[in-house]
Amino acid sequence: MARIRTVKPDLFGSYTLANVSIEARFLFVGLFCEADDDGLLLDSPKRLAGAIFPHDEKVSAAKVNGWLCDLEKVQAIVRFEIEDGQYIGIPKWRSHQRISHSTPSKFRSASGMFHEMFRPEGEREGE
80: which strand partners? Predict the structure, then answer.
């Protein structure tokens, strides 16, 4: 399904992202395209390497995993596991993206957990 994602100019001046490598920053922007309308995606470094860096043979799943760990350390993403799989959530999703015709999350069980446990209070649905 086609989706349009945006990158705000302030992202490039983010003090949070200044603490990670340029590659990790590029990956973070790529995660916007991979995430569903709820800011969730599967935590699969191998799949993300293929989707976000398809022509870069030197970008391995191990490198992507390292960049994901870096993004998690600065709290740009949250990695979590529940019974049906491993997921990545973008805690400030609503401040990064404005979804005009939202579709329900593909990851319903992960979505519920993410909303309740990881999304900051000011970012909860309806606030």
Answer: 87
**E-state strands within 7-127:** 40-42, 78-82, 85-89
Pairwise CA distance, residues 76 & 72, whole Å: 6
Quote the pTM value.
0.80
Q: Is the pLDDT of residue 21 over 60?
A: yes
According to DSSP, residue 125 is labeled T
Contact 39, 89 (CB under 8 A): yes
Break the chain into its structural domains and give their ranges. 9-121
Integer Cα distance of 66 and 48 in angstroms: 12
Distance between CA atoms of residues 51 and 6, nearest Å:
18
Q: What percent of the chain has pLDDT over 90?
A: 50
Q: What gap in Å lies between CA 24 and CA 65, rounded to an integer?
A: 10
Q: Which CATH class is domain 9-121?
A: mainly alpha
Summary mean pLDDT of the chain: 83
CA distances from 48 to 16, 54, 109, 114 (A): 22, 9, 21, 20
